Amino acid sequence: MIKVCKIRIYPNKTQAKLIYDTLGCCRYVKNQYIATNIEYYKDEGKFLSGYDFSKLLTKKKKNDEKYLWLKENYPNIKRENIYFICSTMLKPEVIIQ
Which candidate, 13, 32, 52, 63, has a CA 20 to 30 Å from the CA of 42? Predict the structure, then answer.
């Protein structure tokens, strides 16, 4: 038997902003990872690993001021998000349609 427990949180304004920023960062990283993998697959014929994408994202953060907002969130969240996406997309058909 599966039991369900509903939980509701009531964050204050600073906590809500942190949650919103973190989720936005994760969404951006996911979309960039998918777009980069599609381009890389078209050019090279293979997929970019999560580790290589993480290094690429770190270079972007250090060299381009446009990506400074990615530094504000926790780096572990971005890394965990990349590896989660990597583990869920094992088949090429998931990305290339």
Answer: 63
